[in-house]
């Protein structure tokens, strides 16, 4: 076998080369970031400060992807991952990083990304709120079944890693998983997606996700941290006395119900495109002991809703879009309206930054100014690169 060659300068492609690098920080994609001369290299399962011997497997237009061959000197925050599948299962990308460092990395990622999209803006970032639990926090997981093997995909691949335990799930669900889930065989399908979830009675259960629609029934997975998220949204909303609250991307009403309880005399409207989630929200509304008088749910897209209903200065908008962020139409509608107060809930700082930058420009073109009142990140998904960020915004029309 020929010895891998060593790249001498940055003009030479690094593909298939072996290099020694130091990990500078973590990227929002989950990998560690290293530099070799002017080249940027992403390395999965790395830790800040790691001195590594890596091999470059992929070359992209502006960067490379490498794989760890040897940890020459572990970074100061490197820990032994407690999970036996860590480093193979694609579910956790940060188990090798200490909890404290995970929190620091998330704080700096949010700062760095938002500074890039909103140069010169005062960001007013609060310290991140840690999840009440670092492990055992998930109330549902969606493994895949191939033949009789249940598992998760590997890192950025569609290769199934058979898994018989998961440290991220709540204890009763973990026990259920460990006992072995006996799933019915599905003829004709090479692979099916399953959801293991905690029932209201606190026991484990599963269902086969038969189609994409079921797959898209969103609910927050970290119940304890979701309570913190809800109370922060509600608390911020109470600074104002809105006559109307629009909760865009409302799901089954995660924020809509607490907002309606906090603003009893306001009209509170949940807007959600998934009809099944709206059905669940309406059912919950009917089952409430004292049904809220002014609570409504619309099964439609935010864009269509905003063609009919325009927020005014007495409206408070809460929006919690999917990872891709909201639409330009939604942001332009906000800019054109009399809206003064918004709370943006985001699970992706990149789409958040892009949307805020677009909204800022759309407002500026109308002589209005976007102001960040505060930013609060939540450690919603410990051991992974994912997080939740809340931004309180106000619009100044003078
Ligand atoms: C991140 S989830 C938030 C759900 C809810 N706020 C919660 O905390 O459980 C985003 C939701 O937006 C819904 N959605 C996606 N596109 C939409 C659109 N264009 N208009 C309205 N809702 C949409 C999805 O079905 C999903 O329920």
- pLDDT under 50 segments (min length 5)? 6-11
CATH topology of the largest domain: Rossmann fold
Beta-strand content:
25-35%
Distance between the termini: 71 Å
Fraction of helical residues: 10-25%
Counted up, domains total 3
Largest sheet: 7 strands, mixed
Shape: globular
**Count of extended strands:** 18
Q: What is the overall pLDDT average?
A: 92
Structural class: alpha+beta
Would you identify the CATH H-level superfamily of the largest domain? Vaccinia Virus protein VP39
Lateral strand order in the biggest sheet: 14-13-12-15-16-18-17
Write the layout of secondary structure elements.
Layout: E1 18-26, E2 32-36, E3 39-43, E4 51-59, E5 63-73, H1 99-117, E6 140-141, E7 144-146, E8 149-153, E9 160-162, H2 171-178, E10 191-198, E11 204-209, H3 212-215, H4 223-237, E12 244-248, H5 256-262, E13 267-272, H6 275-287, E14 295-299, H7 302-308, E15 315-319, H8 328-336, E16 341-346, H9 349-364, E17 369-378, E18 388-396
Parallel strand pairs: 3-5, 12-13, 12-15, 13-14, 15-16
Antiparallel strand pairs: 1-2, 1-4, 2-3, 4-5, 6-10, 7-8, 7-10, 8-9, 10-11, 16-18, 17-18
The chain binds S-adenosylmethionine (SAM).
The site of S-adenosylmethionine has 19 residues, from strand 13.
């Amino acid at each position: 076998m020929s010895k891998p060659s060593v790249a001498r300068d940055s003009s030479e492609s690094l593909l298939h080369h072996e290099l020694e690098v130091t990990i500078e920080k973590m990227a929002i994609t989950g990998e560690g970031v290293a530099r070799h001369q002017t080249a940027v290299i992403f390395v999965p399962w790395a830790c800040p400060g790691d001195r590594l011997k890596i091999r470059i497997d992929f070359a992209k237009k502006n960067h490379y992807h490498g794989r760890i061959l040897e940890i020459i000197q572990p970074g100061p925050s490197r820990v032994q991952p407690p999970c036996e599948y860590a480093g193979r299962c694609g579910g956790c990308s940060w188990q090798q990083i200490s909890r404290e460092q995970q929190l620091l990395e998330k704080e700096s990622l949010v700062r760095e990304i938002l500074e890039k999209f909103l140069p010169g803006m005062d960001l007013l970032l609060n310290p991140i709120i840690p999840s009440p639990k670092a492990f055992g926090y998930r109330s549902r997981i969606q493994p895949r079944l191939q033949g009789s093997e249940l598992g998760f995909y590997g890192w950025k691949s569609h290769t199934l890693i058979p898994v018989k335990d998961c440290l991220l799930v709540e204890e009763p669900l973990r026990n259920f998983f460990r006992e072995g889930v006996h799933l019915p065989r599905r003829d004709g399908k090479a692979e099916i997606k399953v959801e293991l979830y905690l029932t209201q009675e606190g026991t484990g259960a599963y269902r086969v996700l038969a189609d994409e629609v079921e797959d898209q029934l969103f609910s927050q997975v970290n119940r304890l941290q979701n309570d913190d998220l809800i109370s922060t949204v509600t608390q911020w909303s109470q600074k104002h006395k809105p006559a109307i609250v629009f909760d865009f991307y409302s799901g089954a009403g995660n924020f809509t119900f607490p907002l309606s309880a906090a603003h009893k005399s306001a009209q509170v409207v949940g807007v959600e495109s998934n009809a099944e989630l709206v059905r669940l929200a309406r059912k919950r509304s009917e089952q409430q002991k004292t049904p809220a008088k002014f609570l409504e749910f619309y099964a439609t897209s935010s864009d269509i809703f905003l063609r009919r209903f325009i927020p005014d200065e007495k409206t408070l908008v809460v929006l919690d879009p999917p990872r891709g962020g909201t639409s330009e139409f939604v942001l332009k509608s906000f800019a054109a309206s009399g809206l003064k107060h918004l709370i943006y809930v985001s699970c992706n700082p990149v789409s958040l930054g892009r949307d805020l930058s677009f909204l800022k420009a759309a407002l500026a073109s109308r002589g209005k100014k976007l102001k960040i009142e505060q930013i609060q990140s939540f450690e919603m998904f410990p051991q992974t690169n994912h997080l939740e960020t809340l931004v309180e915004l106000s619009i100044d029309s003078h």
